Fold this protein.
Amino acid sequence: MLVEIKILPRKNEGTTKNSGNPPRGLVLKCDGCGSLFEKKWLKEIFEAKKHYCKIQCHYANRGGIGGYGAEVLETHCLVCEKPIRARKVGNVRKWGKTCSRKCYGTFRANNPELYENNTLMMHTEESWKKIRESIQERMAQPDWVPGFKGKNHTEESKEKLREAKRLNHLVGEKNGMFGKRHSDVSRNRMSEVRTLRMVDGSIKPRGNNNHMSGHFTSEKTGLVCRYRSSWELATMEYLDRDDNVSSWNYECLRIPYYYENNKRWYVPDFFVEFSDGRKEIWEIKPKQFIDADANKLKSEAAQKFCLENGISNYYVLTREELISREIL
């Protein structure tokens, strides 16, 4: 019920912008609980026959939870066992209801398989494929910008994030993999999928060092490649300006090898094609890492791969060899 129309102070009092009607507010009396509350003046609110201060008062005034002939569910909360009397809206999950967002979050965290199965049932393999393709296509557009790019968290939001991380950090028993280990089959599968995505360009590894990194656009091939060291950048620039090189690519091959009885995948740095028909694989590596057991196995697998696929040579280029080739 309308009680009063208030004249509100202008934001720019004393300026030339004070033309027109002054701002107004509405003092209303709730038709549900009888309390007074205020709203910004809007024609729809002003002309309404009834006014409510909150949604609960609106529900109560229309005949309770079962108003308008809605079916009422008599049940209890799945987490705290609190009795619930709720309206049936749409489909009701077969495992029950919760009384609050807090209880809902607790139940979902304790029963992730229920929601995973529900989500999987929503889409077929074909629809999932279309969703993935549309997302990848959108991200590949030159004008695509990540949603948070150019924005910064406020100090308040930073503190909230830090506090949430301290309270809910996924360590120990909170971690879903606590006390578990991936099987050899799952480890091999994860390795295979990751290297496939590296080769087809859907992911670009960032590395975990403090070396120079960025993107290089080749004038010779048109490729946009992410380099993870100044040596890789210098090599890309060298391949672009060398007239003897007809084409080159970055991290485009997968070579299988075995380390500690587990199948692994080696993705060498450069695949180079020359004008005379030669093909070579180049790996950029600091000298101190060449004798590591894993790197020796990678080199052996790469040399075997070259013999089987008509590739002329495989080279591991250290700093000294990069200097001798006038790359650095």
